[in-house]
Amino acid sequence: MNFLIKKIKHENFFGLIILLIFSIGVNQYYGNIGIFPHDSFAHFETGNMILNGHHPFNDIWIVSGPFVDYFQALLFFLFGTSWKIYVFHASLINFIITFSTFIVFRTLNLDFKESLFFSLCFSILAYPISGTPFVDHHSAFFSLIGVYFILICIKKESKNLSFFIPIFFVLGFMSKQVPSTYLIFSITPIFLFYIFYNNKLFLLPNFIYGITFSVLILFIFGVITGINFNNFIEQYILYPQSIASNRFDNFTIKIFGVLGNFKFVFLSLIILIIANLKKIKSGKIFEKNNFNVFIVVISTLILIFHQLLTRNQIFIFFLIPLIIGIANISVKNKIFKIATIVLCLFTTIKYHERFNEKRKFHDLQDVNLNKAVSANQIDKKLNGLKWITPQFKKTPKKEIAMINQIKNILQKDNRKKMVLGNYPFLSVVIKENLYSTTRWHVFDGTDYPQVGNKYYNSYKKLFINKIKENNIEVIYTILPVDSSQIYNYIDESCFEKNQIRKFLVSHSIKKCKDIN
Hints:
The protein is mainly α. It is built from 21 helices and 6 strands. It folds into 2 domains: 10-362, no CATH class; 413-509.
C-alpha cells in the first residue's frame, strides 16, 4: 500500500515537471508570433499604470479584467516591465490550468499516461491560441478550476476543498463577468443540490466560509487601493449589462453553423455520454461516482453558449481533450481508448495548426508570418516579439517606422499629455504616463460609453476629471482614433487641432468652460 502511494506521488511529480516545462514553453513560443495590437497589449499598459499609482475604475474606464491588470502589475513589479514577462503571465496561467486538469484526471482514477497525454493536448489548445493575457481565457480557466474543485471535493468527500470553490469562481468573475457568471449560476445550484440530495451537509460550511473569505478579500483590496465602490458597480456590473442586453436581443442560433464550428466538441460529448450510458440509464447521475459526467456536460454547454454570444474568436477547443479524458475514465476497452486517443490527437493537431501556427485568434491566418520583424526596433522592452499585425500584414516595417515616429514626437513634447490610440504600450517605451482613460478604442461601445449610451455622462465626467487632475495640456489621437472621440465629450472650441502626420493629431487644450 505504501509503495503504491509513493508510486502515485512520484508519477504526479514527474507529470508536474513535464507539464511545467511544456505548457510554459509552448505558450512562450507562440505568444511571441504576431499580434492584434489592442488585444495583445490589452493589459500591458494598465499593468504598468497600476505600478505608477493609477487604478482601474478610478483612472481608467474598464469593463473587464481588473484581476488580470493587477496580476500583471505584480509580475512587472517582481520581474520588471517587458514583453517577455507579459507573455509569461499567460504561460503561467496555461501551466496552472493544465496541471489542474492533470490532477483532476488522476484524482478521478485515469491512468497516468492517459492523464499526461490528454493534459499535454489540453495545454496546446488552452492559452497558446492567444499567447498573451486575455480576459475570456482567464475567466474560463479560473471558473473551470472552481469546477475541478467541485469534482475533487465530491470524489474525496473533502470539506476543506469546498472552501476553494468560490475563491476560483470569484477570480474568474474578476477576470471577466462571463463566462464565469454563467458557470457560477448554473454549477453552484447543481453542487448544492448534490449536497442536499446525497446528505453531504459537511461540505457546506467551508463552502460558505469560502464565499465570505472571497467577498472580504475583495472589500479589503478595494479599500487598500482606494477604488471607488460606485465606479466599480457602474463600470463592472451595470454598464456591461447594457452591452449584454443588446447582444441577447440580437442573439440567434444557426444550427448548422453551431454544429460546424463545434463539431468535435459535440462529438466528444457524444463519446462521453456513450461511455457512461449505463450510469445515465440507471438514473443515478447524482451519485458520487457519476456526478462528474453531468458537471462536465453542463460546463461544456455553458462555454459553447458563451462562445456563441461573444464576438471574439473561438477559444474553447481545449474542451476536447478534457471531455475525452473524462470519458476514458469509465471505459477499459482498448479499442475505445485507442480510437479516442487518435481522435484527440487529430483534433489537437488540426486546431494547433489553425490557431497556434497560423495565429487565427489574432486574425493572422492569411498573413505570411515570415515577414514579421523584431519588435526591439521599437524598444528593448519588447524584445522577443516578432511584430506583424493584420492592419499592416504586408508591411510590418512600415508600421514599426510609424510607431517610432509617434514615439519620437511624444518624447520631444515636454507638455503633460494624454494619448488615445490602439498601441497601449507607448507609455512604457517612452517612460511617461500618458493618462489614457480606456484600454482601447473599438468604437462599438464595448470599451467605454459612446454618445447615446445611458452611462455616457459617467465616462465624460471621468474623462474630463482626469484631464484636470493631471494638468493635461495636449491630447494626441492615433488612427483609427480621430478627433471625434474627444469632441464627443468635450466641445471642439476647447482645442487647437494640429495634423502632425496622417496618422497622428495633437489637440492642444485652451481655456474653456468644459475643462477649466
